[in-house]
Write a structure and sequence with these properties.
- This protein is mainly α.
- The chain has 2 domains: 2-43, no CATH class; 49-107, no CATH class.
- It has helices spanning 2-10, 14-20, 23-43, 49-63, 92-107.
- The longest helix has 21 residues, at 23-43.
- It is elongated.
Length: 113
């Protein structure tokens, strides 16, 4: 499978890549692709300045609607993306419900029924 991924990334046919790439180069490419994927995954969990700014806006909006606005903290409004356990799948609906429940808890709103 690694040959196909590398060929796709480089935009060359698999046969040509296999013919023109030494085993040492291939191993180095595979390691490079693994590190690149790991870096991309880690970047997903870093809070950007835009995300921080949007969290501040959300917090300011909520301050007018809660009993104790001084208890609100910016970290409560930053979305937390957790790495999923291998094999665990979460549907879009479940993600939406988790986010909704989180913000309802922050706002102190209780579920009906």
């Amino acid at each position: 499978m690694a040959w196909f991924i590398l060929a796709y990334k480089l935009g060359v046919p698999v046969r040509r890549l296999q013919r023109e790439t030494s085993s040492t180069d291939f191993i180095r490419w595979v390691e490079f692709l693994r590190l690149e994927k790991e870096r991309e995954e880690n970047e997903r969990y870093v809070t950007t300045a835009d995300q921080h700014y949007l969290a501040q806006i959300a917090m300011e909006i909520c301050k007018g609607n809660v009993k104790h606005p001084s208890r609100l903290k910016i970290r409560d409004f930053l979305l937390k993306f957790m790495k999923k356990k291998s094999g665990e799948k979460i549907s879009t609906e479940e993600k939406a419900d988790q986010t909704k429940n989180y913000f309802m808890n922050v706002l102190g709103v209780k579920k009906n029924g």
